[in-house]
Amino acid sequence: MKIPTPQKASEYLSEAEAMNPGPWVQHSIFVAKAAEAIATHHPMLDPVTAYILGYLHDIGRQIGKTANRHIIDGYEFLHAKGFSDSARICLTHSFPIKDVNVISGRWDCSLEERKFVKDYLAGIEYTEYDRLIQLSDALALPSGFCLIEKRLMDVALRYGINDYTLLKWKATLSLQQEFEEAIEQSIYSILPGVVSNTFGFDVNMASTRG
Ligand SMILES: [Fe+2]
Q1: In a domain, 139, yes or no
Q2: How far is the CA of 205 from the centre of ligand 1 (A)?
């Protein structure tokens, strides 16, 4: 696959953080870790590849405080470097269903760019890696792993909802089911800290306090 080495990916994210620091960087790191953890238990996926794809999925945010054009900026950045498989993830991660209308928040792209994304999605079949990063993106807050429903609500509260929001939520929950069948266990059983990060306290501490 055409993806950067772990070292190169690390350089890209460090440079990106210097250009536009923000919680998106920690979110990206947890998406990478979630993808790696799931891939480790998956019969068809490579954990290092999964990590790099997750790590760079939001790299387009280096440009600044943009909305949905970060998917195009990320795609163009990695495509220009020759990493077409990593570039692809920048576009596909936002679309658990292949419809440009499913996007959360405003479209700050030109009509030509919107058409480019629409045609790109229409011209590909999703791979397990596309689906893995779509799922992992829904499992990671900047503070760590969380219940999918919490992350979906987090995005809805920040960017709003539209007529496609329920479809997107259902598709994301279907991804959870699909990957849990593949790894033969709950995704939450392999993501440390989900409970404390989702609910804001450590259940083990709470139970010992009585
Ligand atoms: Fe993301």
Answers
A1: yes
A2: 30
